[in-house]
Amino acid sequence: MHTRTLHKAALNGRTSLVAVSVLLGALYAGSTIVTPLYPLYQHEFGLSELSITLVYATYVVGNLAALFVFGRISDQAGRRPVSLTVLAMSGVSALLFLFAFHPALLFLGRAASGLAIGVGAATATAWIADLYGAADKANASRLAAAVNLAGLAVGVLAAGLLAQFAPWPLHTVYAVYLLVLVVTAVLTARTRETVESSAHSGGEVSYKPRIGIPPESRSAFVPPAVTAFATLALLGFYAALLPNLLANSMHEHSPALSGAVVAEIFVVGAATVALAPMLASRTTMFIGLWLLPPSLALLLWAQFAGSMVLLISATALCGIASAFGFRGSLQEANRIAPPERRAELLSAYLLCCYSGNSLPAVGVAVLARFVGRLWADVVFAAILVVLAFIALAIGLRHARRSDRAR
């Protein structure tokens, strides 16, 4: 009787898809809320730019814990219970930021956020694929990617506006986000479960990590792995360092402005994913790689010139390059993965994403202490350009070999 009542109360398929999309977007929004607040935290606690960048990078600690320990948990315990647990963890992260009276709480809040989003994003993405059905993987991937980027954009834009125009700039946005999490939890609790055989206790769940690259896929894995690293490094640069770039290079200290500029890269990326034609995965990845050097060149030009017009143009081009690079590399990783070892290879791909999202941003902050911010950014751009050309060279050579083998 209880199971029948729950099934009757559950949302239908289409509404469930909307609810899971809201879940995924809400989780990702939480990861960028802090971006326009970094200069405010820096002033509040007297932190250096390197310390602030390390707060940002602590996010990857939670991501890695999710990847190595909890990556497959929703396949065993069910999408709905894992998602509700993840929302509770996101609430803990928001509370840590809301009541932060010491910098240590910022690090704990970011780590908790990384763990929640690492587990929750994998769960919600798989849930979307379940609700679409096995025959429509392409549309499921496009929806997940678009919702991902849209959530990032909404989070950073809302945080910037609330920090600029609402009272208590370091607190109001987290109070609002907690309300969003409560509404999302209510929707999630009524969303149709798609995992039939669920573990009912922690002892029934396997936490053994599955990360690896099959020998026959190693050469083909290099281009999507390098593309993912470079693409996420660019997004990490915007999320971690752009507010300070605006303050130092362009003398713009508005949280609303920094939130809007960072939101632009995600909005353009989401639009590109949603509107771009369904190209082959390799072609999509190569387009992203070819667009990366001019994107970085325009970004450096904007910084040299101190021009907001150039920065807005550079951000739009960076958004297009990132969208093609991320979508293409993810689809290519899926394409080359042997079906029986797909989870292992995709976990290795995510490891490249998480590393790219954090390590280069920390490197820029460290280097800036010795050579200055502008030249640190030049080195960052040069390294990404080299990585892009390496990925292109290996990818084109592998493509020619594949064509000859047919």
Word description of this protein:
By secondary structure, the protein is mainly alpha-helical. It has two domains: 1-193, Growth Hormone, Chain: A (Up-down Bundle); 211-406, MFS general substrate transporter like domains (Growth Hormone, Chain: A, Up-down Bundle), CATH 1.20.1250. Helix content is 81%, strand content 0%. Helix 11 runs antiparallel to helix 16 and helix 15 (342-371) runs antiparallel to helix 16 (373-405). The radius of gyration is 21 Å and the shape is globular.
Using brief descriptors, characterize the structure shown.
406 residues; mainly alpha; Growth Hormone, Chain: A; 2 domains; 16 helices; 81% helix; globular
Write a brief structural summary:
By secondary structure, this protein is mainly alpha-helical. It has two domains: 193 residues, Growth Hormone, Chain: A (Up-down Bundle), CATH 1.20.1250.20; 196 residues, Up-down Bundle (Growth Hormone, Chain: A).
CATH topology (fold) name of the largest domain: Growth Hormone, Chain: A
> Strand fraction band?
under 5%
Helical element count?
16
Helical proportion, percent range? over 70%
The biggest sheet, with number of strands, parallel, antiparallel or mixed sense and barrel status, is:
none
Give the overall average pLDDT: 86
Distance between the termini: 57 Å
Give the SSE string: HHHHHHHHHHHHHHHH
How many structural units, i.e. domains? 2
Specify the CATH architecture of the largest domain: Up-down Bundle
- Strand elements, count: 0
* Helix-strand category: mainly alpha
Briefly, what CATH class of the largest domain? Mainly Alpha
**Stretches where pLDDT falls below 50 for ≥5 residues?**
1-9
Gyration radius, rounded: 21 Å
